[in-house]
Fold each of these.
Amino acid sequence: MRTRTFVITGIVVALFLAGFVSYYASSHPDGLEYVAEQTGFLDTAEEHDAAGSPLADYATDGVDDARVSGGLAGVVGALVVLVLAGGLAFAVRRRGDSSEEPAEHRQPTGAGKA
Amino acid sequence: MHVPDGFLDATTSLATGAVAVAGVGLALRGARKELDDRTAPMAGLVATFVFSTQMLNFPVAGGTSGHLLGGALAAILVGPWTAVLCVSVVLIVQALLFADGGITALGTNISLMAIVGVLAGWLVFRAIQAVLPKKLALVAPVAVVAAFVSVPVTALAFVGLYGVGGTAPIALDTLLTAMLGWHTLIGIGEAVITGLVVGSVIAVRPDLVYGARRVLKSRELEIRTAEGAAA
């Protein structure tokens, strides 16, 4: 499989998970939240500063249908992460250096290192 | 395991903020060695996948759920430095857009999930890989163990932070037992998801798995030795 095909397939799978499968995720409290509740410090949690965000708690403001609201929030979030993390990776990457390439792509011994 | 605002006091949150800044700063330098034109798209994909999979809380037991942390998975797929960046981006987006994980707790969450989780997963992975034969078929099973261990280790780190700067007078041994107990169970889910994903990528494009590089290199050497002997 070509790298481009692989990456696009992976992104489609991720968008499907965030946009569709997430509706079926468990809504029970996660491990930390549950432990905090049981041991009695969950009430020390403060109101979130971004609680007014249009996507707060993985629901889209103004969309009533839970499936669409959560799915849309998931897809938007996944795309934002893709752009930020992908952009960061491209900004940080080495350019035009093949030292990590598999051995068969390297120059014959000696030719590369003068 | 997203820590909300208010669980830890301001001093501890500032300290974890400093750890997060230093960790991400080091990762920005370190990731340069891991990323090139071929692997940069993988980093974007892995971060997106971790975000999506973190939305999929799986039921654990007794009314609790867990979700992938993704540190071990990301480290094995794209390398540990890049993994710190990937998970950090996920946590920042979750805190700012989705109100998931506090904003003053962002340093805490990056320190726990992006630094401790990635480091624990990667160190366990490399330690086991070093003593096992260099076989491609072993990469996914070793990833399973690394992912499993990374979750209770991250939970342990939270308990440590709570011991230093928790805002409520909670008995630490009670907290420790509860956190380790639940997160050992959640670690099983982490292990299953990580094993499935790493196994799938190994099946299609093993060369895109950072944690398989040493294995693939030794395989190339074996082929050359065989050719040399035949000539």
Note: The helical segments of chain B are 10-34, 40-54, 71-78, 80-98, 106-131, 139-165, 172-204, 213-230.
Amino acid sequence: MSEVVQFNYSLLVPEYVLAVTAGVVLLADAFRAELKLGRGTVPWMVVAGAVLTVLASIVTAGRTGEFAGLFAVDAFTTFFRVLLAATLAVVVVGSHEFVTKHIRHQGEFYTMLVFATLGGTVMAASRELLTAYIGVELLSFSLYVAVSLAKRDPRSGEAGLKYVLLGGVASATLLYGMSLIYGAAGSTSYGLIAEHLAKDSEGVHMALVLGLAMVIAGLGFKASAVPFHMWTPDAYEGAPLPVTAILSATSKAAAFALILRLFAGPLLPVLRDWQWMIAVISLLTMVFGNLIALQQTNIKRLLAYSSIGQVGFMLMAVVTMSDVSASALLLHLGGYLVTNLAVFMAVIALYNQTGSEEISDMRGLAESNPYLALVIAAGLFSLSGMPLLAGFTTKFILFQAAASGGYLWLVSIAVIMSTVSLYYYLQVVRQMYVLQADGSLIDPQSPDVNGPRWRLTATGYVVTAGLLAGVVFVGLYVSPLAVAANRAAAALFS
Amino acid sequence: MSASEGYLMVSLFAIPLGTALLLMLVPSRERGAIMAVTGLSSLVLFILSVYLFARYDYTSQEQFQGVVAWDWLQNVGFLGDHGIQLKVGMDGISAAMVLLTGIITLAGTWVSWKIQHRTKDFFILLYVLIAGVYGTFVMLDLFFFFLLYETALLPMYLLIAVWGSTRKEYGAMKLMMMLVAASILIFTAVFAIFTEANLGTFDMTKLFGAHYDPRMQKIFFPMIALGCGTLGGMWPFHSWSPDGHAAAPTAVSMLHAGVLMKLGAFGIIRLGFQILPEGAAFWAPGLITVGITAALYGAISALRQTDMKLMSGFSSVSHMGYVFMGLGTLNVVGMTGSVLQMFAHGVMTALFFLLIGGMYDQSHNRDLPNFSGMAKQMPIWTIFFVLGGLASLGLPGLSGFVAELHIFVGAFRVYPVVGGLAVLTAAITATYLVRMFAQAFFGEFNPRWNALRDITWTERAGAGVLALSMLALGLWPSPWVDRIANTLARSIPGVSL
């Protein structure tokens, strides 16, 4: 480490763009009257910033940098930069009408979303425990605030408080776990930890195991894995819909980015010490998430539990950690993000019209807005892993990777739980397609009882159609995403 | 057959998918356009199916003909070269199944033009189902095989729950959940097969030749047999079938009982017998036991039914029992009989559901005791029904006879007792059918049904196509037998003549 330290800061342009966007948005909103900006300007600035981030990430894609082992810019980082920034753009485009109506302090709200995205990219890029922790906290704090910004909804404040209190405990646990790992390995840099742990892997190091357990608990909280999931349904339900979308997309993706960086890098030499912990958590998560989802009547809570179930599936790939399973996990994460955003954007469009989050209020949607019903149905079928859609393909590859890794028993439970998930998704489909607006069963012999037909806004159509196309595209031609995921996974193990 | 026929095989599932997409663009009030699109599409599919069946060369030594492949995903993760391909090809079994699908698609489309309620949505889902079925029969890549297999299940819930009748929500949910739950076993077995073969590819032609540990084969063959068997209506996991079929609209019952259930038996042959032959040999007696039990159980249950659709549903369970029995004989005669029975039962049961549907649409009643002397009021309907019934009880000259004869001969060779029980089953089948003829069709006419009319022209055309296919197989079985028997003898290791 005696060479001249020379950093190529141009590799950090995507992060700069995000940070500048956040600052500009905050100022622009504060001085909106003076600058004579229209209401729509702020969200479009965010979208422009996110799109620029995606472009900058793609431009820097070929080059790599180490930043003295603090912060890696490689294919893995690029993968998450693109994924997270694109998520931000999609959420803002799909929800700006919602935000105008239902959010307090809109400038701050958008700023928080941008900072959350920045935190996510830092988590994906960090190769050092404290840098990673800063990323985690940046993401978490932004979301604590964003969760509680709903207008006239007491659930929002409650959710924010629960989230910040429990999140604080989780962060402390994570930090304590990190400090124990530092104690055992003598460094916070991933590379040096890996070197040290690889050298003396003889015997069980109690401090290390305790540290691992605490890190897993802390990260389990961020990824909402059972038994650290308690906050998820309440936060999802109380948070305004766009924030719920971010929680289920950005927050989850970033948590898995960090999990992959940690467990595929510094902690890989002690695989035997943590593998069983993750296997147990994965099992619990997929079983409980899916079973509890069966009895939900609120679409946000349903999606919360279903996303917990999905986390259980994804953790399987962590159990069998290898470049093969990491590549499958990244692929599934990409497919899951597109699908989940499609569902959320459609639900936001629906909420703009009906103002309800109850699943029973989706009755007769197939007649009053067949397009939106199609998007929601396709999204839910994809989440349950039905074919022609992203979910089937990416889940198949994820499960096969875990099976090839020697965990066929866990995979068979995952397949069972996947079938359970189909049941509750079908309940939503049933409300939309089989029941009519007055709650009666459709009967071919008598005329339909329909609510009035209604249309989405232009941006609503654009964003849902784009995501639906994405869901079908990934389902039918997975190759581009799979190749990107494979490259990212290869960078992880290089 | 050459690669150009391979492209036609791709079009077998590309055309229905394209039809579904095209229908999405047609406004739902344009019924004429919907009829034109679906009519043309079904006709093209039928012609293609007949052509491909005729072109299959059973004298050739190649196991699969008309093979074409496109790489879809390779050298990523656990996949090696040509990891997942869109690879199609045909053997004699798939040739017969493709023909069956063509026939039933044609008849099913014609009778569905009657549907007045959300017609467009119905056809979109129906054509997705058809695409899935066709695709599974010609697919030679395990990933796409399974993808299309699931595609065929995907639209079932909505098709039954929206357009069905009698307890449709219950029937739809039960059918969907039981079938998807059964796929759990297939999923698991597929993962295990890929891992065990360790070739880094889902190419089935390579997986057929791979080495699998005999113990692994014995563990995973029953998973495939139960998973696919559930879709094939295998006792004791058949209970979705009578309920689902009673609830489903006519064309869905036709396609489901006629083709989709065959997909289950086809899956057992493809994934079970061809990939895991040692497991199949080990479990063959079990398959025979389940098969003969199903045949007897279904026939006895059918005796007790008064709802025509339920009777037909249990009759399907019984006839599919023959299929599993024939597969378990492990000799070419019995297994050929199984595949023949898949074809024969498919055509016959589709005819039944078509006729029952044609009557139910007018009378809204399917209870047998309510009917008598229908031959007077609906002569054409009765003729077709009796023809189907005679095929079902195995009258020589009709399709059922050819198939059952093969199965019985095959069964007598291995277990004479089973052969004897199978003949007994045929006798029970004759009992419930002849009793129905005597009561419902002949005898004194019940004036309550004065307003009933005979079936419509589209229904007659559909029934005519199905009846002609029954006669064709019954009178000139060699095109079927040649294709199927040669394929089985060549492609299943350890099968005796």
Note: Chain A is about 75% helix and 0% strand.
Amino acid sequence: MKRWGIAQLLLTTGLSIALWLVAAIACTCVGSTGIHWPAPGQWSYRLEPVILSSLVGAALAAAGVVYQAILRNPLADPYLLGVSTGASLAGYLWKLQFIATLLGALGLGAAAVSQQLFAFAGALASVAIVLALSSRRGRLEPLTLLLVGVIVNAVNAAIFLLISTISRDLTAVPTFLIGGIQTNLSNQQIASAAVAIAIGWILLMWIAGHLNTAILSEGEAQSLGVRIHRLRWTAMVVASLITASAVAISGPIGFVGLVCPHLARLVVGSDHRRLLPISTALGAALLAIADAASRLMIGSAQTWLPVGVLTALLGGPFFLALLWQNRRRMALAEGLS
Amino acid sequence: MTLLSANQLCFSYGRRPALDQVNITLSAGEVVALIGPNGSGKSTLIKLLLGHLSGSGQIHWNDQPLQRWSRRELAKLVAYLPQSPQTDVDQRVVDVLRLGRAPYLGPFGLESERDLRIVRQVSQTLGLDELLNRGIDELSGGQRQSIFVGRCLAQEPKAMLLDEPNTFLDLAHQMDLFKLLHRLSKEQSMAVLVASHDLNLAAAFADRLVLISQGRIISSGPPDQVLDPKILSDTYQIPIERIDRPGKPPLVFPRFDD
């Protein structure tokens, strides 16, 4: 039994960073022309997709850990809950001329309302709709939650396609539908996403010890000294913030937030103080690797394979396996109670 | 020393009254058993005393009104074991015990040396050392209940409120649990309030019984006084017989031959 003190916290965070660094360095060696150590002039454009995919993967995996804990549902994921498409749709709306005009009329310039803030509002709106429609007498029903998430995703996608068709702008369609790492972002966009994700992650680590009580009933959590409603709302808002920050730069990439927490659980168990940093590192590493693989698969062809294609191809079967296993878990949990 | 004093407690679920003018006290080193039919208000009373439900009346823990206790400070004074404790099936026994230290954790969930020392002490007290690294889903119902009691003890509480903790246990494990609660109350001056449907078990181990029906306290006092066949027959709506035993609490049981 090891004490979770400062040393353990720093060691776990350090190991997580080291795990990500190994994967990130390997990924900088992957380009559309093959695998080799980057030449001096290649570093900047090799590093950018690795940093961006790591940032997005880290955010989605951390949010996945939190959603699974506070919703007490191992199948929860920012994409499956509709959070990602909500953020992505709002992020797209922000770019439209009539929204800019509307914001101007309200006295809010584009500088005041950033794309991240807009995406955050979209993420919160989606999660609020999903939670409102899937709870009965204050209790969330896991299956209904996922079904409502699917419907919200479909409606968000339909609204997006309608607007993009009317405005004759179909360039963003692949990114919206499946998500991918783009390298045409401004430094300001990248920096604001990185800052929001970093602050959000530190806040989540701050409450990670109490997230362990989120799996209990409300009465039990309260009796352990945790203000469970405040904890759930704080965690929900912060997880939605970092999801929105990631999705604003990548579109909705599925299954990273589902798969990584489960892989991390196999390594470090269910204590959220260890689970959160390890899952975050796994998310950063896996998405960087998936993005590098997608670059390698395309080769020198003048096209682009969104990384969301790979994560969906790998994550879809994983989700089905998890759904199957979850039936056993639920039966066990019922047996325990 | 009176740890809990509650007066004139009233609570309703919508328009349906669940508790009406209930008064109850709990002192250090005392085991009090709440008995009564299903739906009589036992669980509601426990939740009200913990502040999980809010009704009318006054509740004082250590002479301080419930409203003035922070959740964290109250958790250091009172532990609660619900009827069906919940857990993650991936958790090990030691993880469940460590959850009991939640009221003492620092930011980032940091633990002190004392936190681990208390968890080890609890594990020794309950004889759980061999089980610490076992998965919670590998254990029997009796073992699991001991572990949830251990989670409560890790809070280092002065009082424990248990809601029908023997519901899913066989006779031997029910006996073990009540013996443990009795031992804790006497050795550690713990105040124990336990709701139970087993009148004889409650009478064997409790210092006082509180009989509650339709949200009102019908009778309260030593087992010998509360286990009155006429009052019990009226309360449970079945004929109940009593056998008196010199120097021991009486036994009561339903009359089957009618």
Note: Residues 12 and 18 of chain B are 5 Å apart (CA to CA).
Amino acid sequence: MKFKSLTITLFASSIFLTINICIWKILATLQGVSFTNLNFNLNLSLSLGLTLIFILIGKRFNHILKIFLLSLSFTIIYTFLNESSPLWFSAGIFLLILFFTNKLKKYDFKYLNQDFISEKIVFEFLSLFAIIFFALVILFPFYIMFVTSFKTQTALLINPLDLSIDFSKNIFEIFKSYFVIFKTYDFGRYILTSSYVSIGTVLITLLFAIPAAYAVARLNFFGKTFLSTSILIIYMFPAIVLVIPLYTVFSQLGLRNSVEGLLIVYTATTLPVAIYMLQGYFKSIPKEIEEAGLIDGQNWFGIIIKIIIPLSLPAIASVSLYVFMIAWNEFLFSLMFLDNPKTFTLSRAINHLTGDAETPRQYLMAGSVVVTLPILLIFIYFEKYLVSGLTAGSVKG
Amino acid sequence: MSTTLSKIEKRTAYTLLLPAVCLVFAIILFPIFANVWISFKEVGLKDIRIPEPRAKKIVKNIQDNNSELKIIYKLRNSSLIQDIREVRFSDRLPKNVEPVNLDKRCEFKSPKVKCFFGNWEAGYRENFEIFVKDKNNDTINSKDIKSNKINLNGKSNNILLTTDFTLKNFKNVFMNNNFFELFMTTFYFTFFGTLGAILLGIFAAQLVNQKFYGRTFMRSILLFPYVGPVVALAYTWTLLLDPNSGTINSLLVNYGVIEKPINLLGQKYLIFNILGFELKLRLALTTVIFFEIWRYFPLAFLFILARLQAIPRDLYEAADVDGAGPFRKFFYITLPQITAILSILFMIRFIWNFNKFEDIFLLTGGASGTLTLPISVYQQGFAISNIGMGSAVSIVIVLLLITFMIIYFRLIGKKANEI
């Protein structure tokens, strides 16, 4: 029993540590340090040794002193055995081992002797690994997008792995791509168009959806069940089957290349989900409040404005943020309807940039940062509302 | 009394619903029906534009004192393929100005000159001239003449409104040898994309459901791929995977994992040799599927996490008493509790991934074996400029979609309402 849990701990922890060291090394490579060998096997045996020594020492030492000394010696041996590296890289290795050995704190022979411990150990290391994995897989592209936008074309061609930002240059040089896309490629106008379209879509959607949702939630009328089921079914119809008829009709009506056309389409496509989300919330408001309003002589307009809207602000916030996100990120319709650079939205403008193969990639990435940053900031700031919007609206996407 | 009240209620309900219903009808339902109409027609992109009679006015003086002027109208049919019938023209002349030797097709009723030009064939052009003269031999202000707007109209066939239909488009869609491949590509993309996203979602939800330092931060960043704009993310991945100096290929080459960069998005097949068997992997399709998984697992994660948090704690406490490890707890408690949400999620995501356009379009444009049905709509309609074919493909999509929906509502429609 003891032997089994010991081996599992040794292998799980050392593989975990080695993978982390490799990730750190890869990240360092992207800062321009020229490593060419991951030394996986060597580092695996080093990590095995470290874990073994750690468990053998057990709790006989002061914990802090122990992890400090072990990390220091491991770092020295590691630096000695591996390729030469800058000091900050070794410091990173040191911190990594410090964190790792601190995680191992409770591991000694006594702990490994417990019942059913092996499975728990595997699960714990899997979880730790999963945290690293998800963080890396998700943040890595965003990181690359961000850093590439500060590079220059020649620097990228000379060494595509060196993505470090050269802080010795002046501010204007560092942010050059951003200046260029705003000056040469007119991104200021696209930001305005995108904001105008997104905010407009939110407002019009709310204007149409709130009364409709109120009717569905509260009033009795012929065809109510039919309507509420068809809302969801309509919502399932994809944009791609609407594109050709809308394109032809909009061409003939002269609505292509106009922000108004885009507004109409975005509003119509987000309306069903907005109604669906709002009516669910309206139903949860106690009827008595409205009845009190009725007695006070309010008509439906007064009830919606004075009772329903103030009471359902959280739901309205969710819907607004969700609709804003859809409109801001929308690509298909803006691709189809807009060919005139004067009416481009941000997404369409970035797509237009790639149309020219000569466009340097740092401009493309700077544009991507410009379109991504606002929506991520909004998401982080209003996460609670947007998450509930996403959950309700995520039949689509 | 009660009947009038319910009548008022009904009327209010219809008033409140009307704007939303009209808009949705015009922009979503009407196009679906219009698609059926167009799909039975032979329409190209160039046929969409309605032919219009156009005119440009030029004013020239022929006498020094400007009491006589020549007005030249450059008339043309805007379409090079369609005729315009019964073209009528009218223009207003300033006071005291009248035409001299007016063309036979025209008549002058002060202050308007009206003409009837008859039929203009496709690509018709004419320089039509009118001489005008002031009655009192005063100077005519040529600006007055120029500023008047010409009124020009004619009748033309709108190819979309005629009633000649053909089955050619559907024949082309189905008889084309590629249809089966197209369908299978779409199916692979949809099935594996959905499955992968849900599996990854389960892992992520299971992870975030535990307590650890930085859990809220983790929950936020897990949603980033879904919240970020598809254009930015797709191009970032294209750059990452680029065979020339893309980060991932450069890293792999640098560490000696591969000898030559792999064109992950541009290579149709990757051929392996395993135990003497030659295996072909659809490389570009696989890459696109992985992007799809990466982008949409956050949604699965969100749903599953919400369900996980609703599972009663005492179930796990009882399992702890019985000495069950984390894996057993997962397979015997968690999994049975989330199967309902998983099946709903699978169906919904399946339907949506089936219609996914942007992701593949931005990554590969449908090249190297990643052509799916939605991309085909775009290619037929806009790249090959055959609107009718594009519509026919989208009708096929709608039919498949309805089939999926029927299956969905039959299988789990009732469960969906419970959640």
Note: The mean pLDDT of chain A is 84.
